[in-house]
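Example (one chain per record):
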Amino acid sequence: GGLIAARLRERVEGLLAELGAARDALDVSRLTGEIALAVDRADVTEELTRLRSHLDQFSASHGGEGPRGRKLEFLLQELHREINTTGAKVQDSRMSALVVEVKSDLEKIREIILNIE
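Predicted structure:
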């Protein structure tokens, strides 16, 4: 959220400078609330926490004995969901490229899991 907040602050300050005298007519508390809401919507902390948890579970699951395919496939679905949500929230071309790459890798892993069952 820090980088996004800084970028938003910079853009808002630029817009306010362009407004000049008209900026006094703005409802600053509403503007502040809208900015806070935008930053909150773009925060991916929860998604990254869940992603780390799913990755840890995935790592722990593939080393044990017995049938693990369904659990691994479920974890892959959850990883895919978190990656999609993160990609949708973060409006950044580098992140979009990473999301596509990770989704491709997850699909390759899913195919491997299906082949070993």
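Caption: The longest helix spans residues 93-116.
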